[in-house]
Amino acid sequence: METNKAKIREFLSRHFRNDDLKDDDDIFALGFVNSLFAMQLVMFVEGEFKIRVENEDLDLDNFRSVDAIATLIAKKAA
Carrier domain: from which residue to which, for each copy (predicted)? Predict the structure, then answer.
């Protein structure tokens, strides 16, 4: 799971600057995410981790933080 978190942090760092982003920081509340970036994030998750994000997975809570994204990936990969 730590490898997945590192990949997620790397992707996020390419799109916004916050060198001290913690795994449980809410990227929506911090103002880093707009609707276009949210779709880019979904596409990244699907492509990088070879999973399919279904409509029922498109809940903000699944993408709110590095921890949440990593949990979704683990659940979908199981």
Answer: 1-77
